[in-house]
Amino acid sequence: MTEPHPASQPSKRVALVEDDLGLRKQLERILRSSAGVSCVGSYPSAEEAMADLLRVRPDVILMDIRLPGMSGIECVARLRHDLPGTYVIMLTVYEDSERIFEALQAGADGYLVKSSPAKTLLAAIEDVYQGGAPLSTDIARKVVRRFRQFDPAAAGADNLAPREREVLDLLASGYLYKEIADHMGISAETVRSYMKCVCRKLHVKNRIEAVARYLHRQ
Predict the structure, then answer these.
(1) What are the structural domains of the chain?
(2) Among 16, 86, 107, 198, who pairs with 42 as Cys (CB 3.0-4.6 Å)?
């Protein structure tokens, strides 16, 4: 990841759970030198993170999907109960659709590959904080393939309005909420409203499941 220029006035509280020391330190530097975010916790294992995150109560957690001891997936599942207002973005170098789907079921809010540039990481933090579902196109497609095994029907997709379909198409292409808003000439709040309607019509719990179900229909 390429580090951005230093900035000030952090606002979103971000914690890291990553066992690779070099990458963890790199992520810390990115967060501490960027405007709008602050690094409030950095942990090499899920066990250490769980012992402190309830005290720290971050807005967003960057979670390695594979960790020694307790996995990132198990950690996310526990955090959904203990920190329901905290968003979790999984970090992965693996293209294992089984693990990605398990993390989705556990309650992950987005997925990033570890090779993503700093600006992508920071944009994803902002996006998930605003209610988006940051994930790369290749990961979205893997979720769809895995999702197909469990949900052969796409009930409700035919009831989507044209603008709702457009939002889903852009999400599936890897666009962030702000980018979708700019592309469609609407506000990010309107994008969120569309997605609430989409989730209701598709009978899904979150944005990533909505994208998976919609793409499977195509």
Answers:
(1) 12-129 (3.40.50.2300), 153-217 (1.10.10.10)
(2) 16
